[in-house]
Structure formats: structure tokens, C-alpha cells
Specification:
The protein has 194 residues and is of the alpha+beta class. It has four helices and seven strands. It is elongated, with a radius of gyration of 24 Å.
Length: 194
């Protein structure tokens, strides 16, 4: 049985075995996200100022004959959407900056028997995956987001999203899948009568 707290403690004390690969969170991932949030908020605010200053209304099928009530509705809708985008950009920026403070405690430990992923400073932010409990593991890409889709031995489906904080997610997912396959092959070969 893998004890995630013991593994994290071993890594933090510098006593990780040579066959463990320790990946620490990249600060650049969070800085880029914060800058992206700021850029999104600035562009949305600039668009709102432009629409307001020019009296431009963005709406489907609007023309010079459109009644004023419809124009007012679409103008308000435009402003609400742009205000929501500004808020989303600011919240995203703040979230990335707050998370930036915990990069030292975020790590991914790849071991021959599984992996431990800590995404924050608390023990609740830790995921432990033992290859012994996983029947199948498939890297999946949907809408540009990379995940490991795992089927446990008891039939549950577990999806673990991967982002760029520990490196490029697609090669990382393939590496973890390869490690799982190697573990499964070694387990089959180690059984009596194999």
C-alpha cells in the first residue's frame, strides 16, 4: 500500500530513491495563466469601452430598421457578456497568483508502482494512484484538455485531468500510461507458472 504522506515527506527530505521521478510545478505555468487572465480582462474592458463610446451594438440580424427596444436589449446583453468576461479574467488571474504561492509544495512523484500528485499545500490536494488497483489507463484529449481515464479493478471509472504545471501534459500522460503497462507486464511475469 502506498502512503502518499510518507512519499511526499521522503521527497521533501531529499531521500527519494533513484527510481522515482520527481516533477515540481513550474512557476511559469501560473505566471502565464495570470497574464492570460489580465489580458482577457483588459481586452473585454476595451471592447466594452469601444462599444459604449461608438454606440455599436453587436447582435444577430441587426440593421438600420431594427426597433430601439431591440437595440437596447442587445446593447445591454453585449455589456453584460463583456462584464462577465472581465470578471472571469480577473478571477482566473487571482486564482493563478494565489496558487503560485504554493508551487514549492506542488509535485508529481512517478514511481514504478504508481504515482502521487500534490496540487496544493494541504494533504487534501493529494491524489495517489497505485497501478495495482488500475485495470486500464488511457490518455484522452478532449477540447485540448488532457486526462488520464482509468478503470479500476472494481469497475469504477476515474478521470484525472493533467495540465501544464508539471510539463507538457500529453507526453506526461503517455509516460504514465507506459509506466502502468510496464508494471502490469512485470506483475504478469512475476506470477508463479508464468
Amino acid at each position: 500500500m502506498m502512503d502518499s504522506n510518507a512519499i511526499i515527506g521522503q521527497v521533501q527530505s531529499g531521500a527519494a530513491p533513484a527510481n522515482w521521478q520527481v516533477l515540481r510545478a513550474r512557476r511559469g505555468f501560473f505566471v502565464q495563466g495570470a497574464i492570460g487572465g489580465i489580458v482577457l480582462a483588459v481586452f473585454a474592458a476595451a471592447a466594452a469601452v469601444y462599444l459604449f463610446a461608438t454606440g455599436t451594438v453587436v447582435g444577430y440580424g441587426l440593421n438600420d430598421q431594427t426597433p430601439n427596444g431591440v437595440l437596447t436589449f442587445w446593447f445591454i446583453a453585449d455589456m453584460v457578456v463583456l462584464a462577465a468576461i472581465v470578471v472571469i479574467g480577473i478571477v482566473f488571474c487571482i486564482n493563478r497568483l494565489v496558487t503560485l504561492g504554493s508551487t514549492e509544495s506542488q509535485l508529481l512523484v512517478l514511481m514504478p508502482q504508481g504515482f502521487v500528485m500534490r496540487l496544493g499545500s494541504s494533504a487534501k490536494a493529494t491524489r495517489r494512484v497505485s497501478y495495482q488497483q488500475i485495470a486500464t489507463m488511457v490518455p484522452t484529449v478532449r477540447r485540448g484538455n488532457v486526462s488520464l481515464v482509468m478503470q479500476t479493478r472494481d469497475g469504477r471509472k476515474v478521470t484525472l485531468p493533467l495540465d501544464g504545471r508539471f510539463g507538457k501534459p500529453r507526453p506526461l500522460a503517455q509516460q504514465i500510461q507506459g509506466m502502468h503497462a510496464a508494471y502490469m507486464a512485470a506483475t504478469v511475469n512475476a506470477r508463479p507458472g508464468s
